[in-house]
Amino acid sequence: MAPYESDDAAGAVQDEDLRSGRRKAARYVVPVAVVGVAAATIGLVPALAASGDPDLPKITAQQLIEKIAKSDVQQMSGTVKISTDLGLPNLGGLESSLASGAAQGRDGSSADPTSKLTELVSGTHTLRVAADGPDRQKLSLLESGAEYSLIHNGKNVWGYDSKSNEVYHGTGAASGKEHRAEPPATPKDFAEKALKSVDDTTSVTVDGTVQVAGRDAYKLLIKPKQSGTTVGAISIAVDAKTGQPLKFTLTPKSGGAAVLDAGFTQVSFGKPAASTFDFTPPKGAKVTEEKQGSKVPEHAPKGGEDFAKGMQGSTVLGKGWTSVATFDTGAKGGMPSGSQGGAFGGFLGSLGDKVSGKFGKGTVFSTRLVNALITDDGKVYAGAVTKDALVKAANEGK
After folding, report:
1. Which residues contact 67 (CB under 8 A, 6 or more apart)?
2. Would you say the pTM of this structure is higher than 0.70?
């Protein structure tokens, strides 16, 4: 078989991503939690800005996977552009309300990175990133007339929101262990997640070459072999010299624009200036210290704590791209709706599709990538699978 046609099996992204998504979404209720699960898949982020087809030595998919695994870039800086299109409806005032609540963070600060970086799950954003070994990283989210920066320097983690002039400070001591503030869009980390498992549910091939941010790269194409998934394909551009992922594009099986298109528009593998990672709270800024054992915030919508507990006790049905996470919220009668659920309940009612089966009755909430079924007896089934696949999982799980 020719080098550019090798078909090595690579593991499904799904299992690891769903676990990561459950952790990230544990502070919210559906459908915000659905977006959280999608953010886990989005968590496979790296890069953008591709042009040209450089003439590079032939390489097999297995060799390219090994090149990624052996890559050990410790120093880099650059600009990343991330565009996300989950196909969510316009939430109007509800969206503003949820965003306002989330912006306060788990410790009451708009500079808390656990809430601020959830903005990346929708729209288009520009980031500046820098890294100098495992103890120094910086990520800056550029906004209209403002900037949010997350800085990890040794044991200190700083978050600064210039719009509100608020500072968030955490240390390893606050959590009882070394606190890492690695950017959520680190190319190597998420490429490794995509290739972590090897089974027969995935086709992995080398799909030619490309130039990304001025660097020659190979294109690794990952496609599900299973039916029932909403994922069409994942394309990762891998730097030919360093083995670092430079571009990531996830397209849905339904076609149309990419669910996620993220990548470097500029990148350098030189050592960033030491001052890049220095930070001193500006004069007059409100500084919030990380609280030990921070949990679900008080501003979470009613029922959020039960929902979070359920997510933490979830199990996975099936394998590969059609795996489905399931858990019990303990909320009999399904999620709040109508007058009982207020604006949130009204949104749920307008977004969901009523379904029934051996499992009973429930509602399916959909995005272009992740779907979730919430049954009337309080169980949730979620995954990057079609509505029919969710109902089938619920029937078999019952």
Report:
1. 59, 238, 243
2. yes
